[in-house]
Amino acid sequence: MGGVAGHAGLFSTAADLAALGQVLLDRKNKSGNHSDLPLRAETVSEMTRLQTAGLDSRRGLAFMLWQPDPESSGNPFSQRAFGHTGFTGASLWIDPDRDLVVALLTNEVYNGRQNRKIQALRIGTHKAIMNVLRDL
User: What does pTM read for this prediction?
Assistant: First the structure.
C-alpha cells in the first residue's frame, strides 16, 4: 500500500478514547444512550465476534479478543473483553463483564523503535487495574 493504510492506530486524547470505549461498551451491552452515533449493537457484536477461528490469534473486526495467553494485553480482563493496541503503545480495552473501559496512551517509539518493551507495561497496567478493582 505504499506506506499508507487505514489502520494507523489510536490517535486522540485519553478522554476521547475512553468515551469511544464507553460507546462500544454500551453497544456491546445494549445499553446507554448514544443516539447521535450510527453504531448499532448488532454492528459491535459482529466487530467483536471471533473472525479468526483456527488461527493462533483471536481477532474480531478491528479488535483483538481476549486470549488465554497470560502475555496478551487483554488477558487480565474477562473472556468477553476486546481491544486494540497501537504500534506506539496506545491501547484501548473494553471489558463488558466488568463494565470497564481502559485507555492507555504512551509513545514508546519516541526514543526509537528498537528494544521495545511496551507489552510488559500494558500487561502490568491491566493487571494492576484488575487487582485494584478486586480489592474494592
Answer: 0.84
